[in-house]
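Box 3.1 A note on notation
Throughout this textbook, protein chains are presented in two layers. The first layer is the amino acid sequence; the second is a token string describing backbone geometry. Keep the layers aligned when reading.
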Amino acid sequence: MDDRFDERLTTLERELRREDPGLDRALRTGRPRRVVRGWALLLLAAAFAVLLGGLFAGHGLVLATGLVVAGIAAHLLERPLARPRYGLGEAPRACCGDGPPGGQ
């Protein structure tokens, strides 16, 4: 292999370790890190309690509140997607090519 290629791989590995030490630890030990979202589970349980309370009481506003809070809790429980590499207010950059699309 080329020395430049090895150097680039070493640089990428160093950046990965700096950006995400938890992933580095998981790769070294062979065990993925465990994400505990206990407060989101409690929020989901409370939302279902409110939802059932609104259903049995026949009160639409309480029922709607339970639905909204259950949606928020479900959103908090799902795994996040990969973080975007651009900042707030900054447009995403194209992944391929050097110029704007359309060759202009």
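The CA atoms of residues 72 and 88 lie 23 Å apart. Residues 35-80 form one domain.
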